[in-house]
Amino acid sequence: MGERDGLITLRNYFMIFSFALVLNVLLLSFFFSLLVISLSLAFVVSFSFLVFTLF
Questions:
Q1: Angle in degrees, CA 40, 35, 31, rounded to 5
Q2: What sign for the dihedral angle of Cα 3, 5, 6, 11?
Q3: CA atoms within 13 A on the CB side of 53
Q4: Is the pTM here over 0.90, yes or no?
Q5: Domain count, the chain
Q6: Secondary structure of 1-46 in the HEC alphabet?
Q7: How far apart are CA 8 and CA 30, in angstroms?
Q8: What is the pLDDT of residues 30-49, one digit of tens each?
């Protein structure tokens, strides 16, 4: 009985761990895409500013 309960709690912990892992990966990819978008926007803005000041 106790062994079965231990297996059930272990399975629950594994499910929670995998769910947290997926959530973390999703959050990391979201923040990474935001970072890339902001960097590209900053590059475009600075490049257009440079072009406007030169010409």
A1: 150
A2: positive
A3: 6
A4: no
A5: 1
A6: CHHHHHHHHHHHHHHHHHHHHHHHHHHHHHHHHHHHHHHHHHHHHH
A7: 33
A8: 999 999 999 999 999 999 99
Burial class from Cβ neighbours inside 10 Å (0-12, 13-18, 19+) for residue 30 reads: exposed
Structure tokens at 6: 């231990």
- Look at residue 3 and tell me if it is in a domain: no
The token pair that represents 43 in the structure block: 């590059």
Is 10 a member of any domain?
no
In a domain, 14, yes or no: no
